[in-house]
Specification:
279 residues, alpha+beta, 5-stranded mixed β-sheet
């Protein structure tokens, strides 16, 4: 009976010891968590910033941005986050400049200069931009020569209006328009101009007086020894002067085109009007 009581007492003492041990462990864990949180607050942001800087110096910009953005998100109000933002801006500049260097597009270099007008590479970017503008104009001219149609040439003139050869290009446009109108199956037949004086090959120059009796502006193009275009308002009269010779002539008025070929030598009179016929 005595042994039984001792066993019960031992068991009670053992349970009391277990409860005390659990509370101690819980308190210890809380203490460790608090210390860890304190350590994280004290060293977490500096460590994250240090890692971000290390990746930045190694030009591993993707990893650097990941670290720095995580730092800013976790500790938005710490001084380390303010520094991280500055480094992120440097990374953006490096990436913008790399994009500009890897492309011959003017826009990429212009984008860098727009964002960083006094940036690390602004001087190099300005020089590169000048080179790319010259290269683009040369490329655009070669493309226009290859295409050789009025639409492409008009776009080229709009983009480069101050070229020394701009008048020559405008003549190319007129010639292309004559060719395009004459090649269009919907183009109507243009009657020849009526000669008023001068015959045969005796005259080296020709004068064509054009009267516009339509209700729209009239545009007449001549492609031959000379290449010229003249626009006449509705009801107006204008004259054009050409070297004598063979010409392809294309006229446009009221949304319709007309074309024909003729030999010009002397003075001529042309009267344009549109007749609508019903069939």
């Amino acid at each position: 009976m005595k042994l039984y009581k001792i066993s019960i007492l031992a068991c009670v003492l053992f349970l009391s010891s277990c409860v005390s041990s659990d509370k101690y462990d819980e308190a210890l864990k809380e203490k460790e968590a608090a210390e860890q949180e304190l350590q994280e607050l004290k060293f977490g942001a500096p460590n994250m910033l240090s890692d971000g800087k290390r990746f930045f110096e190694a030009k591993d910009y993707a990893s650097s941005k990941e670290k720095l953005n995580a730092l800013i998100e976790k500790y938005p109000n710490l001084p380390e986050s303010a520094e991280a933002k500055l480094i992120l801006d440097q990374i953006n500049e490096e990436e913008q400049w790399a994009s500009a260097l890897n492309s011959n597009e003017v826009n990429n270099t212009q984008t860098y200069l727009n964002q960083y007008p006094t940036g690390k590479y602004s001087s190099l970017a300005s020089k590169r931009l000048d080179e790319l503008v010259i290269l683009k104009e040369k490329t655009d001219y070669e493309n226009a020569l290859n295409a050789n149609n009025s639409t492409v040439w008009k776009t080229f003139v709009a983009n480069y209006p101050n070229r020394d050869d701009i008048e020559e290009i405008k003549r190319k446009i007129i010639k292309c328009e004559v060719d395009e109108i004459m090649g269009d199956q919907n183009t109507g037949q243009l009657p020849p101009a009526q000669q008023t004086s001068g015959w045969g090959n005796s005259s080296s120059s020709s004068t064509i007086t054009i009267s516009n009796d339509t209700q729209c502006e009239l545009t007449v193009r001549y492609s031959g020894n000379d290449i010229k275009m003249i626009s006449i308002p509705a009801g107006g009269t204008r004259s054009v002067y050409l070297s004598s010779g063979n010409y392809r002539v294309a006229a446009s008025a009221c949304g319709s085109n007309y074309a024909g070929s003729e030999y010009l030598s002397g003075n001529y009179d042309s009267r344009y009007y549109i007749v609508t016929s019903w069939r």
